Amino acid sequence: MDLENLTLTKQPLRTLHLFLLAMLQYLKRVAKYILSKGGLFFLLIVLVVAPGILLAISDGVHKKVCSHSVILMLFLLICGIGYSFS
Q: What is the pTM of this model?
């Protein structure tokens, strides 16, 4: 298979298919990594993300402040996860 000459304009379906296969392979590797590190990592994500989601979907005066806080927490969490993979 000649991956270097594969372009989106010449073979869009083939390119999309290979991209989706590569993303699936990457997600499988990430899932294996997370599962190999144990449930503590998963528990940490749940403890950080779940309260943020609950505050974001609940109505009230705090909604605007909490939504910004949730976005900041998720951004910092994603940055930390990305830094751990590099």
A: 0.42
